Amino acid sequence: MSKLALLGGTPIAANTPQVDADLFHWPIVNDAMRKAQLDVLNDGNMSGTNISIEFEKQFAAWQGTRHALTHNTGTNALWAAMYGIGLGPGDEMICPSVTYWASCTAALTLGAAVVFCDIDPENLQLDPASVEARITPQTKAIMVVHYLAHPADMDAIMAIAKRHGLKVIEDVSHAQGGTYKGRRLGNFGDVAAMSLMSGKSFAVGEGGMLVTDDEEIYRRAIRFGHYDRIGSCYKPEEYADTLQLPVGGQKFRMHQVSAAIGIEQLKKQDAERAEIDAALKYFWKRLGHDLPGIRWIYPTWENSDKSGWYASAFHYDPEAFDGISNVTFVKAVNAELGGDFFSAGCNFPLHRSSLFYETDIFGHGRPTASLYLPEGTDLRALTGSLPVSEGINAKVIHEPWFKHMEPKRIDKYADAVLKVVENHKDLLDLHDAGSQGHIAHTKRK
Ligand SMILES: *Cc1c(COP(=O)(O)O)cnc(C)c1O
Predict the structure, then answer these.
(1) CA distance 347 to 389
(2) Measured torsion, CA atoms of residues 344, 345, 348, 349, in degrees rounded to the nearest 10
(3) Tens of pLDDT, residues 280-316
(4) d(CA 120, ligand 1 centre) in Å
(5) How far is the centre of ligand 1, averaged over its atoms, from the C-alpha of 175 (Å)?
(6) Do 426 and 383 contact (CB within 8 A), yes or no?
(7) How many angstroms is it from 82 CA to the middle of ligand 1?
(8) What's phi and psi for 266, nearest 5 deg?
(9) pLDDT digit string (tens) for 302-353?
(10) Whose CA is nearest to atom 5 of ligand 1?
(11) Ligand 1 site: residues with CB under 6 angstroms?
(12) Could you give the CA distance from residue 417 to residue 13 in angstroms, rounded to a whole number?
């Protein structure tokens, strides 16, 4: 038995945030990126589209879709995807409750409502049975989130969508380049959108991408928020009456510095993800897969991966640790390392926010969410009880996001966990409440 650092013992490692800064630094910047962004500055064309269109071409080839459309944020790419499929007044969109708010919130601005479904307790992805149980005559679409880098069960979801004639949008913000049963995430639904902001595993600065094979969705996305490109895919007689104005009243153009960085990022994306994958798999090999109360979350389907391991989490069972909460456990592990490398909980369940039931956003004098739904529709009742989403925050912990495969340096993070596992009973007096979840699950730059 050795004394835990949190209780005054000797830590496993000292000065880790300084010593290992480069192990976590993100994004990884190379000289080609530095040059590319300076070239844009020097060119005097930061608000142009030539570089962004080149980025789209290369991204579409990498993604394997006909179209890729750059956006200034992932939030807006998702909004454009919702408009693209025709989500509108009186429609319901089913979305998992445990995700980042941008997966669904923009639906309200289109006159649509969000009905939340539960997540699977094992893989944390939207639960197909819970989706199907929430389908009504108003249901138009399913928002699939490949949450915390893990793929959602696309076979089950696409079968449901087909059976009920629903559109499918994929939010790939956590899993760019990831694979489900041998096929790239983002290529299953009608359209996919993703964040490329600097914390995500495909980082270009602020930015987002919409990808689709569907010509009409692509055209609608352009017409919503890309005023200067409407002429490129609509005939003059199609927009003559609107004088080529963007119907969404939005301007979603990507900054060309982001696009230039994106072109360079694309060249090293697969190699970076492979190294992160090797590093995280090494961490788990070192930790072992037979620890009571601690289990990794990893796809069980063949030819499926966790891609860039963005915000990856593992199962933590407080019962196996005499009731010690994930918050206390994480405090003890981090104390061994001298920095906040592990974190407790994931996103708080969105279905608890009154925004999706009561808020009068636009001053209609009625809740925005149910403005266009049949009289008497009770959105809270449609969502109903979501027991897994309600409880998951006390049962998961994020592991550190290693960017480099350096076994000797990764060892100490596994050792810190193992030390706390072994000595957890010493924490019993510190016992406090588990995580309630966060608005953004990471505070990464
Ligand atoms: C980050 C994120 C978004 C929003 O993307 P931004 O680029 O930050 O606007 C959407 N969905 C999920 C799941 C995200 O994590």
Answers:
(1) 9
(2) -170
(3) 999 999 999 999 999 999 999 999 999 899 999 999 9
(4) 21
(5) 11
(6) no
(7) 14
(8) -55, -35
(9) 999 998 999 999 999 999 999 999 999 999 999 999 999 999 999 999 999 9
(10) 74
(11) 73-75, 78, 99-100, 102-103, 145, 171, 173-174, 195, 197, 208
(12) 12
- For residue 418, the Cα-to-chain-centroid distance in whole angstroms is 29
Spell out the alpha helix ranges (H) of 234-378: 236-239, 256-287, 326-337
Cα distances (Å, whole numbers) of residue 155 to 23, 128, 133, 159, 309: 36, 10, 17, 6, 22
Q: CATH classification of 31-264 is 3.30.2350.10, yes or no?
A: no
Whether domain 5-27+268-346+392-427 has CATH 3.90.1150.10: the reply is yes
- For a mutational test of ligand 1's pocket, the pick from 197, 202, 346, i.e. the residue with the most ligand atoms closer than 8 A to its C-beta, is 197
Listed by start position, the domains of the chain span 5-27+268-346+392-427, 31-264
Going from the Cα of 121 to the center of ligand 1, the distance in angstroms, rounded, reads 22
Give one DSSP letter per residue of 46-66, joined into a string.
Answer: TT-SHHHHHHHHHHHHHHT-S
Beta strands of 282-415 (E only): which ranges?
294-296, 313-316, 343-344, 396-398
For the residues of 166-205, what is the DSSP string, one character each? -EEEEE-TT-TT-EETTEETTSSSSEEEEE-BTTSSS--B
